[in-house]
């Protein structure tokens, strides 16, 4: 199978081609381009209408570039997969209409891909792992711990009751005037940490035990951060304090994810692999802390460029979806959906 994948659910426009051979070796990425819109930085977050207009401009140009410069030709493509949800509805519509048009014009089956499932499966692009495994999905829009038995068999073991971890990292980065305001700049800032503010920050992000079973909560971290920054406005100019704060904040957010994961897997039989996926999985501290705190499991992650939104994971999820059923039929009638649980 050679599948072309299109991703436009938020502010990344991406086209990729993945080949999977019948011998079940790791898939091969034959083509992959990602374009990140930067016009949202000045607004401090993604503006949906601006994002969909951006996809409308860039996607046809990226496709033309693929036609002109890729070694892969349209005649080689066996399937076209596109994100149809969850995400920003205007953005999803641009990508899925483009994908459907291509599929129709070239008489190729169209695969409607769930973006969250694509993140969850992305770990299989570079790791030879089998179902079942547990996935920690931590992105800008979601924070869930999921038991993954196959493309059509996923169960949410735990989810956040409020913000996602990525959202909180983004908002606190904005409070600190980091640019661009996101988890990557928090990580960079935290790398410079010292020990000079240990006492001041010691109990800042201590969470009271969250009482609802199987639930995470991140919005409290955001309020604590806001309070601290209001009480210590010098943090915006004091680079040492900013770095120490970022380090303490990251440690607290990741501790919550890791403790919830430990509690979620304790009763499961037959699981030896935990995958960390989604944009926040790029964070080196999160990956090393997981390996240290949950040592008896094989901890795997996609390579950094496949953690954040990308077309390769969509193409790969398309292949997995087709392989999960006996007779796959084109999904040209699939509609775009802003909400779409992995359990559906
Ligand atoms: O998966 P993704 O690209 O988009 C969604 O599907 O939401 O994830 C984006 C999230 C953002 O919240 C961003 O702050 C976070 O991934 N992120 C990181 C890092 N790089 C991106 N978080 C922590 N450390 C990083 N290095
Ligand atoms: Zn995503």
Describe what you observe in this structure.
It is a single chain. This protein folds into 2 domains: 2-127 and 305-324, Nucleotidyltransferase, domain 5; 133-301, 2-Layer Sandwich (Nucleotidyltransferase, domain 5). It contains 10 helices and 11 strands. The chain has helices at 48-69, 89-106, 115-121, 165-175, 183-190, 198-201, 219-231, 239-265, 284-293, 311-323, and strands spanning 2-7, 12-19, 28-36, 79-85, 110-114, 133-138, 143-150, 153-160, 215-216, 273-277, 298-300. Helix 5 packs across helix 8. The structure holds 5'-O-[(R)-(carboxyoxy)(hydroxy)phosphoryl]adenosine and zinc ion (ZN). The site of 5'-O-[(R)-(carboxyoxy)(hydroxy)phosphoryl]adenosine (KG4) has 18 residues, from helix 4 and helix 5.
Helix and strand layout, with pairings?
Layout lengths: L1 E6 L4 E8 L8 E9 L11 H22 L9 E7 L3 H18 L3 E5 H7 L11 E6 L4 E8 L2 E8 L4 H11 L7 H8 L7 H4 L13 E2 L2 H13 L7 H27 L7 E5 L6 H10 L4 E3 L10 H13 L21
Parallel strand pairs: 1-4, 4-5, 6-10, 8-9, 10-11
Antiparallel strand pairs: 1-2, 2-3, 6-7, 7-8
Helix pairs in contact: 1-2, 3-10, 4-7, 5-8, 8-9
The protein binds 5'-O-[(R)-(carboxyoxy)(hydroxy)phosphoryl]adenosine and zinc ion (ZN).
The site of 5'-O-[(R)-(carboxyoxy)(hydroxy)phosphoryl]adenosine has 18 residues, from α4 and α5.
């Amino acid at each position: 199978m050679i599948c072309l994948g299109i991703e436009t659910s938020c502010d990344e426009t991406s086209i990729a081609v993945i080949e999977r051979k019948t011998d079940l070796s790791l898939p091969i990425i034959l083509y992959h381009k990602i374009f990140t819109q930067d016009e949202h930085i000045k607004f401090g977050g993604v503006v949906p209408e601006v994002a969909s207009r951006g996809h409308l401009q860039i996607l046809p140009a990226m496709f033309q570039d693929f036609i002109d410069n890729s070694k892969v030709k349209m005649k080689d493509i066996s399937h076209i997969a596109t994100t149809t949800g969850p995400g920003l509805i205007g953005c999803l519509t641009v990508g899925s209409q483009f994908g459907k048009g291509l599929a129709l014009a070239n008489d190729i089956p169209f695969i409607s891909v769930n973006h969250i499932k694509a993140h969850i499966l992305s770990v299989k692009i570079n790791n030879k792992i089998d179902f079942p495994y547990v996935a920690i999905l931590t992105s800008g829009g979601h924070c869930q711990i999921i038991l993954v038995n196959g493309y059509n068999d996923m169960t949410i073991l735990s989810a956040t009751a409020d913000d996602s971890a990525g959202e909180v990292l983004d908002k606190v980065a904005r409070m600190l005037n980091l640019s661009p305001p996101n988890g990557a700049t928090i990580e960079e800032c935290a790398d410079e940490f010292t020990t000079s503010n240990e006492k001041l920050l010691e109990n800042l992000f201590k969470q009271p035990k969250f009482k609802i079973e199987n639930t995470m909560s991140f919005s409290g971290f955001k309020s604590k951060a806001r309070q601290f920054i209001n009480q210590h406005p010098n943090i915006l100019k004091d680079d040492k304090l900013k770095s120490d704060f970022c380090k303490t904040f990251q440690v607290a957010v990741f501790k919550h994810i890791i403790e919830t994961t430990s509690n979620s897997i304790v009763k499961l039989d037959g699981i030896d692999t935990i995958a960390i996926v989604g944009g926040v999985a790029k964070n080196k501290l999160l990956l090393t802390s997981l390996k240290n705190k949950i040592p008896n499991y094989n901890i795997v992650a996609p390579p950094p460029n496949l953690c954040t939104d990308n077309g390769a994971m969509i193409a790969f999820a398309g292949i997995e979806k087709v392989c999960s059923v006996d007779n796959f039929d084109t999904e040209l009638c699939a509609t775009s959906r802003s909400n779409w649980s992995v359990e559906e």
